[in-house]
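so the lab meeting is tmrw and i was supposed to have these ready like two days ago... anyway. pasting both below. for each one the top line is the aa sequence and the line under it is the structure tokens. i havent really looked at them closely yet so no promises
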Amino acid sequence: MTVANIKPITLEEFLELPETKPASEFIQGQINQKPMPQGEHSLLQGALCQNINQVTQPTQIALAFPELRCVFGGAAIVPDVSVFRWERIPRKPSGRIANRFEIHPDWAIEILSPDQKYKKVLANLLHCAEQGTELGWLLDPEDESILVVFSDRRVKEYKDNDSLPILKDIPLELTARQIFNWLSL
């Protein structure tokens, strides 16, 4: 049996490939397709975007985007929720929002799916921190914990009634328990 040589792909070549559903990411020279979101994941993602945007959009502090491809630092990642400070949101010359975000998010939120590897998702958040992201969250619905990645790459676990760190200037207070209580309908 002959094994063909597989030429490594570049970020530029990856960005020319057709989009996949669910989205594929490119980091450290590897293409990885995200798992299809399931019930808990979808509910948490929607609730996070809604709660963040409810306090940030009217006053133009920031904006939370679900499943937004962000290309920066030699990678193309698609955090479950990407939050950008208002003044950093890429815009076209007309003032309309740009389609391509070629900058790091200010706050990246990932929600662990049952088939995802913890290490790979945490590596994405650490890459974000290396490139300037101020805050990263990794929600684990299974054990109802949230790992927070700070800009200095420090990682801390939050559970129960621990108050979660939020981006400066965002008037939002949340605990891990409040977030995971959203799963009870």
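ok protien two:
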Amino acid sequence: MSERLQGKTAIVTGAASGIGKQVALRFLREGARVAFADRDAEAVTALVADLGEGARAAVMDISDEASVAQAMEALVADGWSPDVAVVNAGVQLFGHDAKAADLDLEVWRRTIDINLTGSFLTIKHVVRAMLATGGGSIILTGSPTGVRGEGADFTAYSASKAGMHGLGRTVAAAYARDGIRVNTVIPAYTETPLVSTLTGDDEARTAIVGRIPMGRAGSAEDVEGVMVYLASDDSAFATGAAFAVDGGMSTL
């Protein structure tokens, strides 16, 4: 492993499973100290138990500002102020999210509260910490549904991700001169527990993979490599950008 993140401290939200977990583990292997942040205290605590002193759990409900603020204050107080933040935690309420005319308001609110408001609250408190230390890199996990009409049956999720993309661009512009970079990674079909819930069966999976020019689904490893680049100093002049990790789907 190259240890491209040696000397850096990172926080990754939604780190108890899926892409967040894989990215956090990769950052560790690349030499960073990593705060694994998740609202599932039991899962995230168990995950970091055997990872050594370079990993710690940060129990955080991103939709609750007091929870985010307390977790960030604890990290800063312990000398873990982040150089890198991966804003990854989110939900997609399969079986409940729907076309606009059929969408229940509570499903809309819960999705927006976690995906968009939660991203804002995480960014807000991460930016405050980074301003005090001279900057850093913030990486958002976006979605194709946030940039094109891929999610006709997922109104709340698509809207939340579109808002996240806009939020990222705005924060990037606002804090560029403060040394804070903000970029978005856009995975397409990636083999994670969340996406497996969407496909449900081999026929559905085959249909989705058939639309990918590279002819295969993405993996967490595909996504984490781009995130390592954005977390590292190699991407020092990249901000406000969106990086598609979708096997060519964005070319269609």
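from a quick look at the 2nd one: Residues 105-133 form the longest helix (29 residues). Helices lie at 18-29, 41-48, 65-77, 105-133, 155-175, 193-199, 202-209, 220-231. will dig more after coffe
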